[in-house]
Amino acid sequence: LTDPEKIRSVCRKITPALVSLMNSEPEIQYIALKSINLILQKRPNLIDRDVKIFFCNYNDPLYVKLGKLEIIIRLADYKNIDQILQELKEYSQEVDIVMVKKSVQAIGRCAIKLDQAAERCVVVLLELIRTEIAYIVQEAICVIKDIFRKYPNKYESVIKDICKSMKTLDDDRAKEAMVWILGEYCERIENSFELIGKFVASFHEEITSVQKQILTSAVKYYLHHPEENDFIQRVFQLTTEETDNPDVRDRGFIYWRLLAGDIDYAKSIIFAERPPISEDAGNIEADLLDVLLENISTLSSVYYKKPEHFVPKIKQKANERFDLEHAENENIQEIYKEDTEDKKEEDKKEPEAAPAVDILAEPAGEIPKIVKDTPPVPPKPVQSTPAGN
After folding, report:
1. Which of 5, 28, 132, 138 has the CB geometry, 3.0–4.6 Å to 171, for a possible disulfide?
2. How many CA atoms lie within 13 A of 269 on its CB side?
3. pLDDT greater than 50 at residue 381
4. Share of the chain above pLDDT 70, in %
5. Gap between the Cα atoms of 55 and 91, Å rounded
6. Rounded to 5 degrees, what are φ and ψ at 42?
7. Distance (Å, whole) CA 37 – CA 28
């Protein structure tokens, strides 16, 4: 369709039908949410009703709640952002940890999507950090790192509260985000040297991604404080001599040689402008999106994959099973054919004839005499004489 009026007419007809599915069983809701998510990426103005339709119910399964969260983020605008933030804040205090983390991430995605509402989102995140619940604080730190990337040199007031929660960090993603914040804002954090030093002390206990971030933050700190030569030498010793990971070791040598040259040139590379960050985590490529919309009533709209990516596998397995059954049938038929042929061959064979007897030939032995027994003569009946004679 290319006519705007026809597009609006079709959207007005589709919207009530899609929204009515939110009162169905969870499985149907899940499929409807998947389809709505696809359609909204192509037609963002499809659903102009109240966003409350997609708010989560207490008895919704987790997969339905996560699907509704995606729709809520897509429908977020400056008119309903306060209502959405209040709802997401309630979701962030649920018992299900997965739902809590996804809700905190949704707040961050709304902040990145809506520039003028970012401050309100940061306020909600700060309230969640002050709850001092470990998994909430750690997810909030990861989200705030993305907000700092989107809006550099803004909302720095939350750094103080973030630094207070360092003791609760046990998630690798949260550690990596925290070390990034320390390196990026080391000039504005009074005890940044001490905080980075704590991560350096536990360098060997961290995973590769955290180790590389510790190295980068230490180099940033050194560029702001060139007098800390012993500190950077210790970091290079950890990354180039005391590690077995080639990625960490190579990055350590790169930074070492970079700092050994022109410092201004090193600053221009390390503090170079970063590519902008946008809220497109759930977006699908345009070509794939068109294919999925053409197959909106099939499994493609649920799997978010082209039909040829999973249907051939099913056909292949079916063909393999058919070939196996066909081979078994052929084997059975061959055995039956062999048995039938053997039986026919046996039936064709004539039975062996008895040896011929020459009736004129003399007998080999004496002819046995046949004695006929004469039956006994029965006695004559005795006649009785009447009395008186």
Report:
1. 138
2. 13
3. yes
4. 79
5. 10
6. -90, -40
7. 14
Record the tokens describing residue 201, joined without a space: 């002390």
For residue 231, which of 254, 213, 214, 248 has the smallest C-alpha distance? 214
Q: Tokens 């410092």 label which residue?
A: 263
Closest CA to 181 of 203, 165, 201: 165
Q: Give the number of other CB atoms < 10 A from CB of residue 284.
A: 17
Q: What 8-state DSSP symbol labels residue 117?
A: G
SS3 113: helix
From 135, 81, 82, 76, select the one nearest 104 (Cα to Cα): 135
Asked whether the predicted pLDDT for residue 288 surpasses 70, the reply is: yes
> What is the widest separation between alpha-carbon atoms in the chain?
181
> What DSSP character marks residue 256?
H
Give the long-range contacts of residues 358-362, CB within 8 A, separation 24 or more. Answer: none
User: Look-up: residue for tokens 């919704």?
Assistant: 60
Q: Which residues, other chains included, contact 59 with Cβ-Cβ below 8 Å and sequence gap of 6+?
A: none
Q: Whole-model pTM?
A: 0.75
Residue at token pair 């007809």 = 13
